[in-house]
Amino acid sequence: MAKPTILAIFMIVLVLGTVTMESQGQELCHEYFVESGICDPKHCADRCTDKWKGSGKCFNGTKICGCTFKCKT
After folding, report:
1. Where are the beta strands (DSSP E) in the chain?
2. What is the dihedral of CA 60, 54, 36, 41, to 10 degrees?
3. By residue range, what is the domain housing residue 37?
4. Inside any domain, residue 69
5. Is the pTM of this model over 0.70?
6. What is the spatial order of strands in the sheet that 28-34 belongs to?
7. Residue 5: inside a domain, yes or no?
8. Domain total of the chain
């Protein structure tokens, strides 16, 4: 019974260590654009994808396009 318990604990530590290493350096950055008219969701998304390979969303009923992307290290 001790061997399966030790093996299970080892596997949990191994998986948690791998997940932690993968998530480091994955900080998200944000940039906002003010459009000339009401924000167009497709234009906003395309602009953010082209510039940073990120995602863009309009703030409802405003001229503001918000981009979210992985920060460069």
Report:
1. 28-34, 55-58, 64-70
2. -40
3. 27-73
4. yes
5. no
6. 28-34, 64-70, 55-58
7. no
8. 1
